[in-house]
Amino acid sequence: MKLNQLKIPKLIKNNSTRYNIKMNRRCFHKPTFVYQQDKIKYYAADIYGINEFKGHLVINLTKIPSGGAAVNINQIDTLKDHIIEKPKEIILGWEDFMAPPVLSSFWSALHEYCIRNSFTEVAFHCMQGHGRTGTALAAMQIACMGSNAVDAIELVREIHCQLAVENEVQTGYLFDLDEELNQRMIDYSLRQKLEDKLNKKINHDLVENLNFFRF
Ligand SMILES: [Zn+2]
Fold first, then answer.
1. Of the CATH numbers 3.90.190.10, 3.30.479.30, 3.40.50.12780, 2.40.30.110, which one belongs to the domain with range 29-206?
2. Hey, which of 74, 138, 148, 166 would disulfide with 131, CB 3.0 to 4.6 Å?
3. Dist. CA 14–CA 31, nearest whole Å
4. How confident is the model at residue 13 (pLDDT cuts 50, 70, 90)?
5. 19 CA distance to ligand 1 middle (Å)
6. Which residues, 6 or more positions from 31, have their beta carbon under 8 angstroms from its beta carbon?
């Protein structure tokens, strides 16, 4: 095959996205401020970028750590004074590519929890910061601000990454959430068109290239 027959994906560039073929075609997501509500700033990050987060609370959407053998270092008297204080972390254990394992009431309960605890800087992260992280940030806007699913998804994609909310399961979840919580009834065929449009924006070849590891 001649070199000019090879399909090379377009470069994607925005404030928070670096697309580098040499680095296994992976984008990098340091904590990015996505939206604010009631003085709480919500951020998105990937599994590496989250280490730079200096806020109050991390919502870890992956399954790591998952085992019962994990020990909280703060509970070991001889070691707890030797660590740098990190933000509190909630681990959700959300299956990759799937809808979240929570009730529709979870998102507003989480927002209330942040208000009660005076957490004003809160970050969501998964592995690459796309599917689960994008879905969580869109769900927060739908549940807590009354946004519609299209606006919520587009805002996360525009500010954070075009690959956010990465499949039909996750866009479908967000439309269902909007219907249930905001009583927004959308005609079935219109909803299909809107979902198709949102899912077409996902470059599946690129997603495939990015999926070199998953947790
Ligand atoms: Zn990205």
1. 3.90.190.10
2. 166
3. 14
4. very low
5. 8
6. 43, 44, 45, 49, 50, 52, 53, 55, 123
Instruction: Map tokens 């919500």 to a residue.
Output: 42
Kindly state the average pLDDT of the residues 35-49.
Answer: 96
Task: Tell me the per-residue pLDDT of 106-162, one tens digit each, with 9 for 90 and over.
Answer: 999 999 999 999 999 999 999 999 999 999 999 999 999 999 999 999 999 999 999
- Residue 70 pLDDT: 61
Site of tokens 């680095």: 23
CA of 90 to the centre of ligand 1 (A): 22
- How far away, in angstroms, is 82 Cα from ligand 1 center? 34
Domain boundaries, the chain: 29-206
